[in-house]
Structure formats: structure tokens, C-alpha cells
User: Fold this.
Amino acid sequence: MAKKRLSISVQFLVILAIIMVLNGVVFYYMLKNVYQQELKAQAQTVVANVEAFGTWVANNGRVWVKDNPKSYLGKVSVVDPEFPSQAIHFYSKNPALAQREFSETVAASSSPAKFRMTSTNVMNPNNAPDSFERRALAAVGGNTLAEYFEVVGNDYRYAKPVYHNASCIACHGDASTAPADVIERYGRNNGFGFKEGDVAGIISVTIPQRNLFSGAVSVFGLIEVLAIGASVLLILWFVRQRIIVPVRTITSMAEKISKGESADVASIGIDSNSKNEIDQLTLATNRMATSFGLAMKKMNESRKAAQQAIRVAKTLKAQQGKE
Ligand code: HEC
Assistant:
């Protein structure tokens, strides 16, 4: 059965399409990796800020606020002797409480990245872990993992463990030695029993992931699209100008030669040592045309000679007949 194949241009377009699709897939995954790393860096920044804020509170022991009885640990009232009837009340917030209020303030803000602190053994039931946080706590529980992250639905979720040091154990160690104001507010059942060096819990960060394609405009600007279009056109132009068009020309030459017609093979100006394959094909076709022409010339000459001989023979025969 004779092989019927598609034209080079069609084959080339098919291959080009496959290459573009493969490149597109690779590009998508590269973009996704970069984006994931970027989200991780964002989450790490959030954690660093939360830790820094906690450290700031811890370095001050507690922070004291005036006239904010919504949530606090301790309370002192100061009376100015000059105005004994007007006591001023100060309320204290420890690092975890201040961090939780920070977290609630961020949650209510326009910041896309949210965070909270949680633990396997929470002092405040409102800090109880969700299912991702339970997985993260289980993963970092062995004291070996420095961070844990997952993509949950549309969110990038990140967790970093926090460890108890001696100062933490004052409140999170034995409930019987914990400060009275902590016991008063949180009871003696939850959030205690930790030792120095234990995983206290995690700082859990949630960042909504943007769809890479809905944000395609920011990835592909006009210049990028034009550059891709231009490179495709460049490849198409090259294949057409340098392969398809010369092959067509040579084919029509060869066809003419095969019919014995005179063919003008444009080989003038081609260096016989040219490294270009099409040039070599043109030169070879030219040589073929020359040899073919010579052969035809010789054939015509022999034919003429033969006809001459026949004529001579006929004349001789006729003369013999007369004699
Ligand atoms: C002054 C007492 C005190 C000290 C010291 C203290 N915490 Fe807490 N911690 C608390 C209280 C009270 C809460 C609950 C705050 C709230 O209502 O969210 C808490 C909450 C937490 C939570 C959130 C989960 C939960 O139990 O509700 C983590 C994690 C935590 N603390 C870790 C630490 C670490 C680590 C240190 C030391 C760097 C530390 N804490 C020092 C009192 C303390």
C-alpha cells in the first residue's frame, strides 16, 4: 500500500501545537511552584510578625491597658490621693492573650492572610484546632518538623510549632502553681501539664490562594503575548522560507527535468562547500539536470546517426535493386 503522508507544513503545525501544549503544562507547574514558594514566604513572614509581637509583650512581662475590661488576666486599681473617689483601673494581657487579640484584629481587617494560635491542649476552648491544625499538630508533635503546610480547598495553610520555655511553664506547667488570675479565668483543667521543651502548639496561618488563570493577565502582559506570538511566527516563517518553499521549487524543477523540459536550477552563487542541506540539494539537482541534458544530447546525436545510417542503407538497397 502506498504511503500517504501529510504535508510538512501540516506536520510541522501539529508538532508545534504539541510543543506549545507541553511547554504550557511545564510553565503552569513552574508558575505554581513559584506561587507556592511565595505563599510560604508570606506565611513565614506572618509567623515571624506574630512571634515578634509575642516577644515584645513577653519582654514587657505583660502589657497593661486602661479601661478595657473585655478580656484581661490581672487587674490593678490605682487611686490618686488627690481624687480618692476616681480609681483608675489597669488590666493586664499576657503574650498569648495579646496575640489572640492581635489575631482577631487581623481577622477583622482587610489582610488576606489570617493567623491563630492553637494547641493539642488548649487553655481557651475558642482556640481549639480545626482538622488541618490537628494534622499539623500531629505532624510537628514529634519535635522534628520545623513547619507543616497543605493546600486545603482554596487556601494555603501553614503551621509553625512554638515550644515551651521556662517562662511559659509558669502558666502552662502545673495548674496548682499557675497564677491565680489564670486559674480564675480559664479554670484548672485545660492548657496545663506542659514541660519545658514541649511543643506548646502552632501558629497557624491561612492565605487564600488566587487562581493562577484568573490572574493570567498579571502573568501574561501585552508584551509577553506579543513575544510568544512573534516567536511562533518566526519559527513558521523560517520553516516556510528555508525548507518548504525551496523544496517546492526543487520538486518542480525535478519534474520538468523528468519530462525532458529545460529546467533552470538557480544554483548560481551557491558555494559548493555550503553547509546548508537545501543548497546541497539544489547543487545535486543542478548536476543531475546537466548530466540529464548531456545524456539527452548524446541520445539525440545517436538517434540522428542511426537515422542517417538507415537512410544510407535504404539508398544502397534501392541502387542494388536497379542494377
Ligand atoms: C501569664 C501566663 C502565661 C504565660 C507566661 C504563657 N501563656 Fe500561653 N496562654 C496563657 C493563656 C491565659 C492562654 C489563653 C489565651 C486566650 O484566651 O486565647 C494561653 C494560650 C496559649 C496558646 C494558645 C492555645 C491555648 O492554650 O489556648 C499557646 C500555643 C500558648 N499559650 C503558648 C505559650 C508559650 C509558648 C508561652 C511561652 C513563650 C506561653 N504560652 C506563656 C497564659 C500564659
About this structure: Residues 118 and 126 are 9 Å apart (CA to CA). The first helix runs from residue 8 to 59.
